Amino acid sequence: MSSFQVLGKLGAGGMADVFLARHSVPGSAPRLVALKRIRASMEERPEVWVQFQREAAISKLLVHPCIVRLEGVGSDAEGPWLALEYIAGTDANRLISACTRTEKPFPLRWALMLCRDAAEGIAWAHALEHDGGVGVVHRDISTDNLLVGYDGRSRVADFGIAHLDGHTRMTRTGEVRGKIAYLAPEIINGASPSMASDVFAFAATVYKTLTGVAAFRGTNDGEIFRALMTTDPAPISGLRPDVPRPVAQWLDRAFSKEPERRPTAASFVELMAPATERERAAFGAWVLELRPPRTPPPEPGMFPGATTVIRAPRSRLPRWGALGLLLAAIAFGVASLRRDPEPVPAVAVEGPKPAALPPVAAPEPAVQTPPGEPPVVPVEKPPVAPKPVRQKVGRSSLDLRVTPYADVFVDGRLLGTTPLKPIELTPGVHQVLLVNEALDVRRATQVTLEPGKRQRLEVDLRKP
């Protein structure tokens, strides 16, 4: 018999569903937890079980006030489960959206408090010693995964795709995990996730928290993909002049395209003093006013440490503030952009025609010159050599076979949804990004097309 009483559904990630539940333990008062279970449709996939177990193992190591805590792990008649700390509050992304709707900026001191708490949690995870080395890489830092409690404290949430630095990666080379607008360029190019890539994602999180807009923007994933690879964010001082100069300078370095030039998360913590209890109380009250709970609490005292408490959600999906914490990976959608494929035709380049040889004139007779002067000897002009003929460049094409399907971006341009006819491209190197919203998978790869040849690329997005 399960020790959990499910009160409602909080959300769903790529492999699991998350519920608000009352956890009853003999000898202890019941408490609310965020209960995570593998979705029924995913139970037959062994890689999902491995990832679930890996998440539990990593989460056990993460014990810090600025990281959402693992309350317990186990299995019952309904399968394995993770019980996560439930935080009454909301996430940073919803706070930013609420500020945008009211046309008021996020108060600077509280925005910096939020980011400092997050940096403290990330820095602690990066410094954690484990049996394989040092460091836990989050891999999915974003405003959705920063939870802000009514107690005025912020916590890093959702280590669902995290890995221990120094251990074997779960995902294959080229697979992109995380939200596209927060990904470091080297990750898109197939590099292994690292603490430096976490810092890049955190910088994008700080930028959006302070300005209300994303550091890298576009109307679709392809445009964001191209911006990440080729541009730098607009200077934050131009969007928000009150941002302290040391913070602006830290962001400039954190957005470096070269991972080794980025600062650490710990260096961000050092930029400002920690929050006082009075500041936290004021911040929590502001969060409560801006994003209040939708309903009264189910019973008193279920949310220790919180300014207020929240009732369990109704059966339909509500606007729960903790949703960002619990989604294992929020799928970023491009389904609305799907349209008929628009293959890019290769341009056949013809070389110039060889120049015709000019006729060579017959030598003229020697010119008679007066005595005493040397005769003028006529000089024959050498024949003009023909210009080299450039070889005609053949047409190249990419034949994509994707299982089950994907939205296809080539060099940042959305070409359609598979199945597609072979895509005609110019010979050379091209960046390909495959996105499957339903599976919450993005996979990037680089292909080199030879003139006049068709290259076939087979990808199964169901396999890790």
Structure description:
With 464 residues, the chain is an alpha+beta fold. The chain folds into 3 domains: 82 residues, Phosphorylase Kinase, domain 1 (2-Layer Sandwich), CATH 3.30.200; 216 residues, Transferase(Phosphotransferase) domain 1 (Transferase(Phosphotransferase), domain 1, Orthogonal Bundle), CATH 1.10.510; 84 residues, Immunoglobulin-like, CATH 2.60.40. The strands form 6 sheets. Strands 1-2-3-5-4 form a 5-stranded antiparallel beta sheet, with helices on one face. A 5-stranded antiparallel beta sheet has the order 13-19-18-15-16, with helices on one face. It has a 3-stranded antiparallel beta sheet with strand order 6-10-11. Strand 1 and strand 2 form a beta hairpin. Helix 3 packs antiparallel against helix 5. About 18% of the residues have low confidence.
